[in-house]
Amino acid sequence: MKKLLPHICIDTAVIFLVLWVLDRINEAMHFLSRDVFKFPFLVFLILVIAESVILIIYQRKE
Known about the structure:
The protein has 62 residues and is an all-alpha fold.
């Protein structure tokens, strides 16, 4: 899980970046205001928090 979590966070961050760019190009799409955006954003936040906690624990053990 420790090796997989950073990759999932990077993938999710790239997805959000693409959605942000698409929303700026075509504002009628409303990617950032729909409910579809809210769930992946919540998953991204949870993953970032989990990754941070894991990295803090790992660094304290060293």
